[in-house]
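To whoever is covering the structure queue this week,

Two jobs came back overnight. Logging them here so there's a record in the thread.

Job A:
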Amino acid sequence: QVQLVESGGGLVQAGGSLRLSCAASGGTFSIYTMGWFRQAPGKARELVSHINWSGGTTYYADSVKDRFTISRDNAKNTMYLQMDSLKPDDTAVYYCAAARLSTVVRGLYDYWGQGTQVTVSS
């Protein structure tokens, strides 16, 4: 059983930056594809980015390409999301999740964190 804990959310002005972290425990972190999802009020949870077990393959939603960077440190059992040039539309609760295969399908992610709030003011 993998436990995931997000941190790093907060309030930032448009154009600013935040770095989210996801710390994993209770499993073999390095075998999982890790993903960042977000859910804004009244909207469905959507995939923002994911990274494969080695960090060699990444995926980004079109809405965050060239602004967000996903990375992982398997030695520290931690994944990161560097968010730059933030926009009010990025306001959401951000969740990290783990999957046994590289996928964009939300339902195939087996483990989820509790989420961290990101609020971008205009």
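Job B:
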Amino acid sequence: QVQLVESGGGLVQAGGSLRLSCAASGRSFSSYDMGWFRQAAGKEREFVAAVSWRGGSAADADSAQGRFTISRDTAKNMVYLRVNNLKPEDTAVYSCAAGGSGSRLSLHEADYWGQGPQVTVSS
């Protein structure tokens, strides 16, 4: 059974940092692009960042503003998202996703999705 399980969410003060982790299991994801999304209450899910199976990364400029860094450890089937200088508007459920050949994570095309932890940023 394929699973993506995120961890590292919680309550954080504005200006702080956190690192979210996503553990993928059930198959090898070495040939999958991995990404992070977020969905705030009452809003649509938005793409945050992705890292290709080759290691190249991309982030949505509007949401990231240079504060989001995605990385992966392919050998461990892990993907991470570090967020610096958190803002109250970063409050959302953050979920990771995996996209195989032909998937475009920036367009929300993924084969597998995690459930995501809540990240709440207090002002």
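Note for Job B: The chain has a mean pLDDT of 91.

Please reply-all if you pick these up so we don't duplicate work.
Q.
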